[in-house]
Amino acid sequence: MPLSDARTSLRLARRALSYVHRELIPDEPVIFSHDHLSTLWLLTDEFLARELAERTLKPLAGLTAKQRARLSETLLAWLETSGSAPEIAGRLNVHPQTVRYRLHQLEALFGDRLTDPDDRFRIEISLRAMRLLGST
Fold first, then answer.
1. Which of 64, 48, 65, 46 is CA-nearest to residue 56?
2. Per-residue three-class SS string for 52-120
3. Fewer CB atoms < 10 Å away: N or C end of the chain?
């Protein structure tokens, strides 16, 4: 970074190191913050990340913790891959029919929000933030 950005560079390095201590970023001999920009950005304000997730993932709120975790994992895999049930099943190490069943549950819970690009974006960043923070 240019010398004029040294303060920002130090701030990012300190934040990256704090995430290493929390095991949110892998502990390696040398850590380059530019390799973890999405994590650094996504968790810049954990309060906002949690608030967004709470509002965005509200359809999952009435489920048990186990159901919420399974459906969250399936939904994130679907959003990340836009793949078929067999592709998602391979990624999650479950049967394709299990993925289809979960996707039908998610469609019932989220409805049209799964086809709206803005809602899909909010859902994906919420799920990614909650995965990093260890909550669903």
1. 48
2. HHHHHCHHHCCCCHHHHHHHHHHHHHHHHHCCCHHHHHHHHCCCHHHHHHHHHHHHHHHHHHHCCHHHH
3. N
In this prediction, residue 134 carries a pLDDT of 84
Amino acid at 116: D
Neighbouring CB atoms inside 10 A of 48's CB total 11
- Check residue 32 and give its pLDDT: 83
Spell out the residues 6+ positions from residue 15 whose beta carbon is closer than 8 angstroms to its own.
33, 40, 44
> How confident is the model over 49-54, as a mean pLDDT?
94
Check pLDDT > 90 for residue 40.
no
Residue 53 has pLDDT above 90, yes or no: yes
Query: Which region holds residue 72: left if phi is over 0, alpha if psi is between -120 and 50, else beta?
Result: alpha
Q: Which helix (H) or strand (E) holds 15?
A: helix 6-21
Structure tokens at 125: 């960043």
